Amino acid sequence: MGSLKIENVKKSFGPVDVLKGIDLDVKDGEFVVFVGPSGCGKSTLLRVIAGLEDATSGRVLIDSQDVTATPPAKRGIAMVFQTYALYPHLSVRDNMALGLKQAGEPAAEIDKRITAASTMLSLEPYLKRRPAELSGGQRQRVAIGRALVREPKLFLFDEPLSNLDAALRVNTRLEIAQLHRRLKATMIYVTHDQVEAMTLADKIVVLNAGRIEQIGAPMELYHSPANEFVAGFIGSPKMNFIDGARLGESVKTIGVRPEHLTVDKKAGTWKGTVVHTEHLGADTNVYLDCEKAGLITVRIFGVYDAEPGSTLYATPDAGKTYRFDADGKTIK
Amino acid sequence: MSKATSSLPRSIGAHAILLTYTIIALFPVFVVVINSFKSRQAIFQQPLAPPTPKSFDLIGYTTVFGQGDFFLYFQNSLIVTVVSLFFVLLFGAMAAFALSEYRFRGNTLMGLYLALGIMIPIRLGTVAILQLMVASGLVNTLTALILVYTAQGLPLAIFILSEFMKGVSDDLKNAGRIDGLSEYTIFFRLVLPLVRPAMATVAVFTMIPIWNDLWFPLILAPSEATKTVTLGAQIFLGQFVTNWNAILAALSLAILPVLVLYLIFSRQLIRGITSGAVK
Nearest-5° angle of CA A200, CA A202, CA A206? Predict the structure, then answer.
């Protein structure tokens, strides 16, 4: 159906190495999210899988077939782009039909697939319109529809929600999750937003500077990050990192998530001054400047009043601290 | 219109400046056209007066149509302009697409080389071009003119179009590749429609110098069968006597086709279907 195997893929643009040897296995039906800061190579990796970029070395296998030298149209993939990339001169219907016509599918089959896809995405009323006459959310649905009708082995999403506004982003995220459940298709999704990664993925691949930092289920990454980078990237607000030497510990860095700290006005491990408080309603973020630990963030559930300048004590929950060695690796 | 962005004195001022410029720009054309409808005497007595029933005379036009084969000259001019324009746009757009889309060794150098022609006038090479045309037996053919004008128009076309093509969304081209479109289909069906306004700009800038050129027709194709309008009008320009009626009539007529072409392209300039392709 749709498994993917990447073997030691490297990609260089001139002297710049964008991908420095990527190995990855994606099982049939999995929803895999590539996440990482901008410039980490996640989009390039997706393009290599799609065949839009040639790998400098290494192999890409889809369904155990080596497709490294196969053109994009013959790889059995479909891609949804950040900018939608709809053909401006074609109607919604023709946008969806173009790839199938190009592949020589019979007209009846094309009709059948377009009807099915447009019903699934509630696009029927818009089939005759041009992309210019649609809203952003509708355009993104057409782009997804164009991918659906190809019935690909592999769906590739390149930051599909980045151009949508916040409310629409949550809705579309939900639709993509439901789509995955219904189609049981293999999907690969690129994003820089760790919330999207956490909410959608069966498996997250964290990339940094052209290398895979860690692969795992969302909760696996949250609870046992392999290194300092993953620990800092997954979770919001990000994990507090405290210099081990300042705390008199033997390790290089100590990490504590903001939600794993409790505050008290009278006593606690680290004494600090409140710098700023963010009230979000459901929770409150307090920024504390501690004597020993430096500036740390504490996430308190519910409403909590803390005047800037007042003194608070923060205490890490037992067993919820992470220790990192000089290379940034987690010490188990 | 909101008050914040327009005030009466300001818009009067702007219109006054624009109108003055329009009048200055159009005045010579206006003088040519009104004098083409006047008798020879009237042209010299009152060059700036519009034709009156007394001074009205079509002698210029009858001379033009009677003497010389002006219909053929027009046809030659049109063929040379339209065919050169077609090649400039086609090859210019193709080169621009390659420069903006593909990474290859020497890409930047190639771009600079192709743009160099903007700074070096092609007329500097007239002697060499003439020798080349003589050697290849192309003297006194329209092909010679078309080749020269295509070469003359390409640098600017490539320069402008490659800038515009860099602006066409990569995602759109990649979507085409995934849908199985060939590079040619992507170029002709996706990219060209999106840079149509730029193509129209290039067309206008390329077309007018070709239509108005006297130099190359005079040197490369002066035979009766290949004369262009500008060269054809020269027969009325003698060393001792000049038939002003005929010259002004020929020039007035020469404005028309280029005006039609301009109107066609300027509509394309305004139209644009980019919106909706990408956000």
Answer: 85
Measured CA distances, A198 to A62, A192, A208, A237 (Å): 25, 11, 17, 14
Q: Which fold would CATH assign to domain A237-324?
A: OB fold (Dihydrolipoamide Acetyltransferase, E2P) (2.40.50)
Task: Please tell me the distance from the alpha carbon of residue B130 to that of residue B221, in angstroms, as a whole number.
Answer: 10
Distance between CA atoms of residues A154 and A76, nearest Å: 7
Contact by Cβ (8 Å): B51, B61: no
Give the distance from residue A168's alpha carbon to the nearest chain B alpha carbon, in angstroms. 15
What CA–CA distance (Å, rounded) separates A98 from A104?
10
Write out pLDDT tens, residues B37-49: 988 888 888 888 8
Domains of chain B, each with CATH number or no CATH: 1-57 (no CATH), 64-270 (1.10.3720.10)
Phi first, then psi: what are they for A141, rounded to 5°?
Answer: -65, -40
Measure the CA–CA gap between A317 and A262, rounded to whole angstroms. Answer: 7
Give the per-residue pLDDT at A111. Answer: 94
Residues A253-281: tens digit of each pLDDT: 999 999 999 999 988 899 999 999 999 99
DSSP B223: S
* A15 touches B: beta carbon within 8 Å: no
Q: Above pLDDT 90, what percent of chain B?
A: 40
Domain chopping of chain A, boundaries: 4-230, 237-324
B38 DSSP assignment: B
Nearest to B171 among A83, A102, A130 (CB): A83
Q: Domain A4-230: what homologous superfamily?
A: P-loop containing nucleotide triphosphate hydrolases (3.40.50.300)
Interface pTM (ipTM) of the complex?
A: 0.83
Those of residues 130-159 in A touching chain B at CB distance below 8 A are 130-134, 136, 139, 146, 158
Distance from CA of B173 to the nearest CA of A (A): 8
What's phi and psi for A127, nearest 5 deg? Answer: -55, -30
What residue ranges of chain A have pLDDT lower than 50?
none
